[in-house]
Amino acid sequence: MQLEQTPSETMAELILDEELDKQDPLRHLMDLDGGLVEAPVSSTQALTFLPKQSHSVEDGGMLRLSFSHDLIDVPRPLEITLAVDASPGCGGIAWPAGQILATYLIQQGSGYLKNKNVVELGAGTGLVGLVAGQLPDAKVWITDQEPLLPIMHKNVTINNLTSNVLVAKLDWGVPVPSTIPKPEIILAADCVYFEPAFPLLVQTLDELADKDTEILFCYKKRRKADKRFFGILKKKFRWEEVMDDPNRPIYNKEAITLMRLFKR
Ligand SMILES: C[S@@+](CC[C@H](N)C(=O)[O-])C[C@H]1O[C@@H](n2cnc3c(N)ncnc32)[C@H](O)[C@@H]1O
Question: Which domain of life is it from (predicted)?
């Protein structure tokens, strides 16, 4: 049986969390040996909890992901070959939230992204944007910080998506480069994990979005202090949980939530 926490216990945990975060802001992504937690290349469990998905790891850090679906005008199954490499940082591996968001995009059907500008923030390997780029007539920009750009370029090329998936540097909190158009859809997976970046991410969302922009935001809860992010977010956005995803009960168990954000 789970014991209820008193408010003072919760506050004490929050304070301790923050003290540890000051010493190591990325500790929630690390395991006890200092490696990345949930690193999917070496762990089969992280990539297989969703049905209709399979993966295999090939030599040289290549991951092959296969998404089965019933769409007639999208390759069946939809396959992505992903170069993964933890050396440029946590974005260099494929996180479960990204796979959940990618799977949801496919479920939305082949008309969902038609003729839409789609911008992915904190794309890492680019998995979500690469899947978006295989849906008919989507125009996709996958964005991240400088160190991730080579692996994103590599993944776009490997998957023959150079004509409709573009790679761009986009640091949260700095003005969005003019080469990135105003998107109709913004995608973000597992981008809440580093407290100093919380206001920067909200600033970039605010700059990119207007009242008609659809924002799909897949969030993995790692610590109590994450609520600070939502405290900042709520000044500019409201949100609701995506309820029509049949995989929701599975990933909710992993403390992952898929949300739609709307600009106030
Ligand atoms: C946990 S990874 C998730 C990667 C990918 N979305 C996925 O689901 O596999 C978080 C990503 O956010 C990016 N990121 C962190 N801070 C950023 C910032 N200030 N500006 C742009 N991207 C940032 C990281 O480089 C990394 O790729």
Answer: Eukaryota
Say what the pTM is.
0.87
Within a domain: 30: no
In a domain? residue 93: yes
Phi/psi class of residue 148: alpha, beta or left (left: φ > 0; alpha: ψ in -120 to 50)?
alpha
Number of domains in the chain: 1
Q: Which atom of ligand 1 is nearest to the CA of 197?
A: 19
Three-class SS state of 1: coil
Instruction: Please identify, by atom number, the ligand 1 atom nearest to the C-alpha of residue 120.
Output: 6
- Is 16 part of a structural domain of the chain? no
Q: 213: domain range?
A: 39-263
Q: Which two tokens stand for residue 81?
A: 């070959």
Euclidean distance between CA atoms 138 and 177, whole angstroms: 20
d(Cα 154, Cα 177) in Å, to the nearest integer?
22
Could you read off the pLDDT of 120-157 as tens digits, one per residue?
Answer: 999 999 999 999 999 999 999 999 999 999 999 999 99
